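Colleagues,

For the teaching module next term, I've prepared a clean inverse folding example: a structure given as tokens, and then the sequence designed for it. I'd like students to try predicting residues themselves before seeing the answer, so please don't circulate the second half yet.
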């Protein structure tokens, strides 16, 4: 029996989703809370990325925030005190089916993901940005992993993402000391793809989205998976994975379009198939 066709979730408070051409834009829309996330927003984002990964009309996913900030993390006011204290281990069990699904879903999605960051990117908001394939930040954006500052430990993959991007020393500075990193410094560290003046952010992101949407999506997605698997792969097994990816990408319509374009001395017109 064929797998059922996945569909995008119904409207979710705090998330605005727009599909324009090959770009699926997802915008956090709680500006009065610096776009802090609710349970429904987290689960909705997981579902949206999951569905978009198999939606052939989507060539690139763009994550951004309404107003002056990207995302201030999970809205802790929704975890207010009162009531009976949860039993030991409840948090760990709940995270498995909640925020701990988000970063793996983004990493496994073969559709490229771009985050445009201005203002604050804090906690879970920071991790969402760093799990994206490209982060373009405003020079004066502020990236902050405040977990230890609040006397608890990182969650949602922060202690996995940050060392891989900037190394152990910088990761300890960000996580153990709670250093707030500007967009410009984040670019210098390699934490984000690039940083530009705030007035140029929208233009820079738009150009990157067009560039990605025009590229051969099948090859791009397979190459993304190879990059993500490389740090934990042995060379021989990784070479085998490269061979498999090459076999798959060479069967794509875009591969054959590139061959035709070379014969005809013109630029290729990739369709993402």
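(Answer key — instructors only)
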């Amino acid at each position: 029996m064929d797998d059922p066709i996945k569909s995008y979730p119904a409207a979710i408070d705090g998330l605005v989703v727009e599909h324009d051409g090959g770009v699926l834009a997802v915008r956090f829309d709680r500006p009065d809370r610096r776009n802090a996330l609710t349970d429904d927003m987290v689960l909705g984002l997981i579902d949206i990325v999951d569905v978009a990964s198999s939606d052939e009309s989507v060539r690139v996913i763009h994550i951004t925030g309404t107003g002056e900030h990207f995302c201030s993390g999970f809205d802790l006011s929704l975890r207010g005190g009162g009531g009976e204290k949860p039993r030991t281990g409840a948090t760990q069990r709940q995270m498995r089916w909640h925020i701990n699904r988000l970063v793996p879903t983004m990493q496994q999605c073969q559709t490229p993901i771009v985050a445009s960051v201005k203002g604050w990117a804090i906690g879970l908001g920071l991790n969402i940005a760093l799990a994206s394939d490209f982060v373009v930040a405003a020079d004066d954006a502020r990236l902050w992993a405040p977990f230890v500052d609040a006397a608890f430990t990182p969650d949602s993959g922060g202690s996995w993402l940050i060392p891989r991007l900037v190394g152990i020393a910088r990761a300890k500075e960000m996580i153990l000391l709670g250093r707030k990193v500007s967009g410009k410094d984040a670019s210098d560290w390699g934490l984000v793809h690039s940083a530009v003046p705030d007035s140029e952010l929208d233009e820079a992101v738009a150009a990157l989205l067009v560039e990605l949407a025009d590229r051969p999506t099948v090859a791009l997605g397979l190459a993304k998976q190879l990059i993500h698997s490389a740090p934990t792969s042995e060379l021989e097994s990784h070479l085998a994975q490269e061979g498999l990816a090459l076999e798959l990408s060479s069967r794509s319509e875009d591969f054959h379009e590139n061959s035709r374009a070379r014969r005809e001395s013109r630029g290729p017109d990739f369709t993402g198939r």
